[in-house]
Amino acid sequence: MSVLVVGSLALDTIETPFGSASETVGGSATYISLAASYFVSPIRIVGVVGGDFPRSAMQLLEERGVDMEGLQVVEDGRTFRWSGRYHYDLNQRDTLSTDLNVFQAFDPTVPETYRRSRIVCLGNIDPVLQLRVLDQMESPRIVVCDTMNYWIEGKNAELRETLKHITVLILNDSEARLLSREPNLIKAAKVIRGMGPSVLIIKKGEHGALLLTESMVFSAPAYPMENIFDPTGAGDAFAGGFLGWLARTEDMSEENLKRAVIYGSALASFCVEKFGIEGLRDLTYLHIQDRFREFRELSRFDED
Ligand code: AMP
Question: Whose CA is nearest to atom 16 of ligand 1?
Fold first, then answer.
């Protein structure tokens, strides 16, 4: 299945307890596309960058089979910038600044050749832009959406409108509580599924992820990692691995959704092992499958 990804392409400034990086390439669309590129090709990207976005990053995306026709380059504009600091508990992150820059005036245009893409992934950007992209598509089969507290708080009504058109919503636990105003995650999932998405994934940082549908709750383990350098992009890498697997297999059964969650978790685990996008540069499909199998062993046990 063909995949369209819309989201941010960014220059991130990150501080973790293990190091820091200034103006390193990031952004939701960048992480999602790189992660998904190990499963399916081409990935079509819709987004915007300024003239200061490194050519080498565009080259890397192209080499990974990402179609850049839908990427607008505003030569005299500044790329979106985000800055964040992680605590010793890496599940805790403070956003220090968000500079929308070229995203402020961004009007996404989906190229004619992209409009029949079967899977659309709405990466974390303004929900108004997410909906504008969706309006230009010709009946996609699956719409995956990611968002964050910035939009849940700042554009709640607009986000609720977008959610009416979503198949799979991916959130972390605190975002799920914020959106539903319900502390219990199982109850929160019911509330959120009532807003539109039939499938909900709640990520719990280094504690795994929950997959919830009308008839099932599946709990995916987290990969026990000794070396986590930078959690930035883990959520997006998860989304990329998840939808990459669905695109490759064209199967939305509950059993296959579970596999997709494990592939998402595998890509997130590779992502956090290195700084920025480094962890997603040089993987192979075999490498990913090995980690998938390790996940299976993590929570397998016999009845007697
Ligand atoms: P994650 O760690 O998966 O939540 O994603 C981090 C990425 O999201 C970073 O590379 C940021 O550039 C990007 N990001 C952070 N805030 C926003 C925002 N408000 N809109 C779009 N992208 C964002």
Answer: 82
